[in-house]
Write a structure and sequence with these properties.
Cytochrome Bc1 Complex, Chain A, domain 1
């Protein structure tokens, strides 16, 4: 235990010394950089406000546009691009969420290798060529995924919950799209989406690795300079609280029922973010030691696992309780989950539980931010969601200062027990 404690102290100390540099390129891209020494590596992540909330009525457009980056440029084919990255040992990837479209690269920081990997990376981002054969291939893959999703009760439940909580908002639809919407997307749509959203002023660049600030500025400028300046995407409207409760059942031929209970949540700038975060760790976010798990799994054996979490979206996410249980036990599990949440909202937290949760979060947070990849993720979050630059260094201190009353007040303010979405997917018995 002493060795573990010493390790956490050392990691925390190193983390506390992490210096986050920030600036804007002449083209308007926001840059966050952290120098880390020891590994001759550089991680680069580009975050564009170009994800599924920007689909318009062509659901799946953002994901298709993002996934086709790297298939072809004006100068190189897909095979040549892959070979260029592999020849220098660089890793290239893309992903698209509801808020942010991500393009990332990991490469060695040795000058000759970094120059080559950065050149092809910049070309992929700034000179893409969307070709019909790759669009057709990606459409087929997405259509297969949609078909497979219809056979998965977990996927069916997740999509239905999004539609219920985000009704009328750009978050409501599946980022992969629908069979109908995918069929209506053309090369011209991809070009227009790229032209509007993959621009410097709509970009956050995160850099973590063994390079100097001067070199980081040169890299950020090279990336930004290759893009059109454009303009920052207009913010989506805030997701409004639910007006009434919803009880939804979707019949599905499965032996188990997927139970989802929740409502509108918060964003990362919410005034009660830290107390809600700590409270959820105690209620349902800490695995088998949580109150929710104790009530449903340990005391009654209704589920192998159950948990809760907040999704922190730009325009508010949701709070969600998830339970998977036998069809015959679904009603009992639902009632206990709701009653457990009600008790948590209305009663003060045990002091021992509170301290254990603080110790767990504070100790674990040091480990979560000890790798370049994790630091890169946090820099991306800080930049994209416009969080304070001391978010990392102040996180544990803010958790430490939260009291039981703070948590209870924040949950009373947010959670409305009369306006919950209660969704089940399974076979009714």
């Amino acid at each position: 235990m002493r060795v573990i404690a010493l390790f956490l102290i050392l990691v925390s100390s190193a983390h506390a010394k992490l210096n986050i540099e920030h600036w804007k390129t002449p083209e308007g891209a926001r840059v966050l950089f952290a120098q880390t020494k020891g590994l001759p590596m550089l991680d680069v992540q580009l975050n564009f406000d170009a994800a599924s909330s920007r689909d318009g009525d062509k659901f799946g457009l953002a994901k298709l546009t993002n996934s086709l980056l790297g298939t072809a440029t004006k100068y190189h084919s897909e095979e040549q691009i892959i070979e260029s990255f592999e020849s220098v040992g660089a890793e290239f990837s893309t992903s698209s969420l509801k808020d942010m479209a991500i393009v990332s690269m990991r490469t060695l920081s040795r000058n000759d290798i970094l120059k080559r990997s950065l050149n092809i990376f910049t070309e992929v981002i700034s000179q893409p060529k969307f070709e019909q054969k790759y669009l057709s291939r990606e459409k087929k893959q997405n259509l297969r995924s949609i078909k497979a999703g219809k056979q998965s009760p977990a996927t069916v439940a997740s999509l239905a919950f999004d539609e219920a909580v985000f009704t009328g908002h750009a978050y409501a639809h599946a980022k992969i799209g629908t069979e109908d919407s995918i069929g209506r997307i053309s090369i011209d749509d991809l070009n227009e989406h790229y032209k509007e959203y993959y621009v410097a002023k709509n970009l956050t660049i995160a850099l973590v690795g063994d390079i100097s600030k001067t070199h980081a500025k040169q890299i950020a400028r090279q990336i930004s300079h290759g893009l059109n300046m454009g303009k920052k995407a207009r913010k989506n409207p805030i997701v409004k609280p639910l007006e009434k409760s919803q009880n939804i059942h979707i019949d599905f031929p499965s032996k188990q029922t997927h139970l989802l209970i929740g409502q509108t949540g918060i964003n990362r700038s919410h005034i009660d973010y830290y107390s809600l975060y700590l409270g959820n760790h105690i209620f349902g976010g800490s695995g088998l030691t949580s109150i929710l798990s104790d009530e449903i799994r340990e005391q009654r054996g209704l589920a192998y696992s159950t948990f809760s979490y907040f999704t922190k979206m730009q325009s508010n996410g949701y709070f969600l309780i998830k339970v998977q249980t036998k069809n015959s036990q679904a009603d009992q599990a639902r009632d206990i989950a709701i009653e457990t949440l009600k008790n948590f909202v209305n009663n003060p937290i045990d002091k021992e539980n509170l301290q254990d949760a603080k110790d767990n979060i504070i100790g674990g947070f040091a480990l979560e931010t000890s790798s370049n990849a994790n630091i890169l993720t946090y820099l991306s979050i800080i930049g994209f969601y416009d969080l304070p630059l001391d978010y990392l260094s102040s996180f544990t201190g803010k958790i430490k200062d939260i009291g039981a009353i703070d948590i209870q007040k924040s949950y009373k303010k947010l959670i409305d027990m009369d306006k919950l979405v209660v969704l089940t997917v399974g076979s009714q018995e």
